[in-house]
Amino acid sequence: MRSLDKRVAVVTGAASGIGRATAKALAAKGCELAIADLDEAGLAETARELTRAGAELSTHIVDVGDRQRMQAFADEVIEAHGRAHIVINNAGVTVNATLEDHDLDDFEWIVGVNLWGVIYGCKFFLPHLQAAGWGTFVNLSSMFGLTGVPSQSAYCATKFAVRGFSESLAMELANQNIDVISVHPGGIRTNIVRNSRGPEDAARQRVINWFDRHAMPPEKAAARIVSAIERRRQRVVITPEARVTDLLKRLYPPPIPRRLASWAIRKSKLV
């Protein structure tokens, strides 16, 4: 078990959802925090909640898909805290559209945030984790990093890539006392669907309604993530639907048969 007391944790996408909940969970373990997001108002609210709880922190307005900004962000964290031990690459976005209807600018946007944001977070903070003598990268993939889903080709592409990147990096750093955790949540009650790009149609509203009623609170996901850091896990699958998906993909690795996929699409009315 790793003690997190007095460690410095960096959390992107900290204005809401899993990012905010994980920042609060890490603060409860005694971590100093560097929290980042593009949502200035949401980030300020996270900072107020953490400050009321007695956390030491710095706030940073960051577009994780911006290479120069992410490099500067790493420098800012070291200037503010002197070191870094844990990096939660959590910031994420989605687009709900078939490839036929998908705007390529939106495709580049999601790749920038979901994939390049993770790569930049690992690349620019790696020297600081090495200097600290130990560390953990937590890279948010998804249940959709385990299986393909219609109308989510861009999102799935980024989350599959995050999983592969994380597994490779974990092997590279295995002898350096630096862990890399790939996290695969299913439905978590966050703003990602509500803030998604794509048509404002009935299918999107059905997904939003399902998340509001049935999705797991982000605090439960955050608890699993923090436990994984302490226990030095390499892979975390969160929520029952994600675990079932993971099991089915292990038992039946090929893609879903065309007829079954067609039936599921008709029933779900996803496209």
UniProtKB/TrEMBL annotation:
It is an enzyme of class 1 (oxidoreductase). Keywords: Oxidoreductase. CDD domains: SDR_c. Pfam families: adh_short. The keyword Ribonucleoprotein does not apply. Its EC number is 1.-.-.-. GO terms for cellular component: membrane. The keyword Hydrolase does not apply. It comes from the Bacteria. Signal peptide: none annotated. SUPFAM superfamilies: NAD(P)-binding Rossmann-fold domains. GO terms for molecular function: oxidoreductase activity. Residues 7-191 form the Ketoreductase domain. InterPro entries: KR_dom, NAD(P)-bd_dom_sf, Sc_DH/Rdtase_CS, SDR_fam. Belongs to the short-chain dehydrogenases/reductases (SDR) family. This is Putative oxidoreductase SadH.
